[in-house]
Write the structure tokens for this entry.
Amino acid sequence: MSKKLLLLGNEAIAKGAIDSGLTAIYAYPGTPSTEIAEYIENSEEAKELGVKCYWCANEKTAVEGAIGMSYAGKRAMACMKHVGLNVAADPFINSAVTRINGGLIIVAADDPSMHSSQNEQDSRFYGDFAFVPILEPSNQQEAYDIIEYAFELSEKYSIPVLLRTTTRLSHSRSAITIKTTTKQQNPLNLPKDLKQFVLLPSIARKKYKDLLNIQEKLLEESETSKYNIYKKGEDNSLGIITTGIAYNYLLEVFNGNVPYSYLKISQYPIPIKLVKELYNTSDEIIVIEEGYPFVEKQLRGLLNIGKKIKGRLDGTLPRDGELNPNIVAKAFNINWETHYNVPSEVVVRPPRLCPGCPHADTFLALKEALRDYSEGRVFSDIGCYTLGALPPYEILNSCVDMGAAITMAKGAADAGLTPAISVIGDSTFTHSGMTGLLDCVTYNSNVKIIILDNYTTAMTGGQPSLGYGKLENICKGLGVPEEHIKTIIPLPKNFETNVAILKDEFKYNGVSVIISKRECVITAGRKMREKFKK
Amino acid sequence: MKKDIIIAGVGGQGIISIAAMIGYAALEKNLNIKQTEVHGMSQRGGEVVTHLRLSDTQIYSDLVPIGKADLIIGMEPLEALRYIHFLKPDGWLISNSIPIMNMISYPDINKIISRIKEVKNHILIPANDIAKQHLNNDKVVNTLLLGACAPFLGLTDKELLNAIEKFFSNKGEQIIELNKKAFQLGFNFSENYK
């Protein structure tokens, strides 16, 4: 029995997990990954089955939670955007060494072309680095189907599996066929060896060898996987290797009838046997992959001797950015003419803070309070408020990674730029800001930390902010003097008062925290509408 | 049957609703669908676009190829023009003529309108004005635009009206009727254009 649902790639992953006996998902929101956990959070079916969604303080705590769930024998999943895997790299890499108990899938959603990100790093390198299998579905149906397979693979080899998706798959909807049966959840069942997860050097050395020893088996799995497709073509002048969503663009260009032999990869390690067969039977090779030239680079090797390898490294395809059907057509010298050109009057419409956004009032007050100080001392972070770097505010001088607003301000203050100002969101603060604040308190650095408390994780659509109602106490607990923890309400009518409070704190030589408190207008509006409905 | 559609607008204008209504109608007809969405940073009052592909054969790419769109639906004139390179030579551009000027330097609107008029097949519809004038409600601009596009979607108006009913099913009879009226106003506008 089966039925059809119209799902986003992310929703297909979530639904696949529910149907495959998932017990819990752990996540920190981040575009383009957020809808995976959100789907489970809002799913009536998940509620009935007791499948839990845990929003976590950050990606590291999310992966650790999932590892703990796996330790207890249950199937778990942790989801994040690509840069979130940087934060979670430590538990992720080590979970390959400890190996797992219940099936464990780590989902990383990459964002080539940086639609909503600071870089376009390719998570497949992390999978390779950790020696774990990587799965990279090419369409929504495959994204759904591959989850069951991923859990089986994970449990068969007692290894975490990395699922890599990209923006276009995550955020595109298609009708998919789903199973009407749900796999039962695993029972609570601890590892047979209760020292399995103890990575003391003496144990770790042995476990690391074990990990290296199963690599050949994992390669065999890839070489026989139904998700890796090898198709012979009649024209031998070119052989094509394509991975993940790039496969769709290849099929689009040739309307499904590719004249050349091709290998579509959705499971790694790279299936060497299949690559070899393609290489031996084709005059040249072209590699088409979304993201970094991961396969291409390995195929070329350091010396690039042998047959010609075309792809992102020789300019056949652009070195950076997302692929599309036109770019792929061009790589085959197929000329798809365009009739209309975008006229020069069409200028960029940059995103901006919503009308009534509390951040706007905070920025206006901050700008005024900083009038007597030299420019270039405001360190910021990642969230809607980063738009304060653009006109009309233009007062932010950094956005590097979650939490860096506080620690970069400390470093700059250490260097003599005092007072250094830090602007950070409430959710970002609890994600990675608290530890930095402890650094500041330890050295009584002259930093002024403005926490923009809008009660939510706004940019990704309003997921819970775990520090809600706790921020003052967190700052007190970390040792910020009580008289230098101030609260302001960012409203136009409070402008003068807010400027005065900020100026006052700027004069104090030490750590100050100013919590600027007002709910995000989007979530406030949503709540109001829901209330009205009732 | 195969239709490649680009729907463009500004974050918050509800382009996903138009896509969803067309999607409902297409699903009922058992067509294959692919539809991209924009989530994240751009949603905050920036440029948003949806690629919507309908076909009775398999659809491969989630993205409509540049130069091959049958239809561009603009919720806003500047945004419609931003994706003009997607339009095939005999494709249709149907756009709201009322701009959203939420940016520091919006280009000369007359210039934008005249650029749209250079497109061989185009319909410019003052959707907000019509909605306000006839229905005293400009929240139905997207259904009105959907009505204006109805003759070019490869779906009958009956199929689309059913989809509207389905889409607004939990909003009550009044909202459904209001949106059906808006659809009809848009449809009539297109039928009588020029």
Q: What stands out?
A: Chain A has a mean pLDDT of 97. The CA atoms of residues 58 and 431 of chain A lie 5 Å apart.
